Structures are given as structure tokens and as C-alpha cells.
Automatic annotation (TrEMBL):
Family label: Belongs to the peptidase C69 family.
GO molecular function (one): dipeptidase activity
Catalytic activity: an L-aminoacyl-L-amino acid + H2O = 2 an L-alpha-amino acid
Name this polypeptide is given: Dipeptidase
BP GO annotations: proteolysis
Organism, as annotated: Photobacterium aquimaris
Top-level taxon of the source organism: Bacteria
Sorted UniProt keywords: Dipeptidase, Hydrolase, Protease
Keyword Protease: yes
Amino acid sequence: MQGLRNHYQVTAHDPYRPIAVFRTEHSHVLQLRPQLPIAIGEVQYIVYGMTALSVYLPFYQGMTSVPEALTLGDNKADNHSAYWKFRKLQTLALTEDLTNELFTRLTIDTDKLYNFSGS
């Protein structure tokens, strides 16, 4: 997942940023662990918006429900859906003089603290 957050910052490729760009709608990472029961061994991690400014949320094969905020929303911004909350936070991070490096570090630390990535 770290590779999907990289945007070649401070390199000759930085201006081109082929990954981790703001226009990213969502990103998915699939994890298959055959030694575990399917219900917990097959996981899809999803990021809403820019990978460098968000957290991969785990969706296990055995889940029977998701938080309500993940079921809300459409193509109009609102204050209720998880998607638009993530997007607004990312916009704030980019406009409030928070550097991508700082925000990326905070995202990674939060991911590790709550073990969202299952690592």
C-alpha cells in the first residue's frame, strides 16, 4: 500500500506523479490469505480519494454490514457520507499549508496505530 502512496516526491519524476494524485477517485488492494477462513482471509482494502492523504479501510469477505456513512452519498458533496468527508479532509490538507509529507506521515501513523492495513 505504501507504493500506492508514493508520488516520486523530490525526484525528477515528481512533476508527473503517476500515482497518489488528488484526482484519484479510489484505490483498491486485495489480500488473500489461504491459511485463514475465507471470512477473514480475503480482504479488500479501499481508499476513498488520494492514496497519500487517506487510510485504507479493510472490508472482509465475511462482513455482513458496513458503517452507515459508507452507504451514503452520491455525486454531490455532503457532510454525511464517508466518501465526501475523506475528500473534504484531503482538500483541507492541500489548502491549509499542510505539506503532503506531513499529512502522509500522519496518515501512515494512523494506519499503523489502528492496524487498518492488517499488517
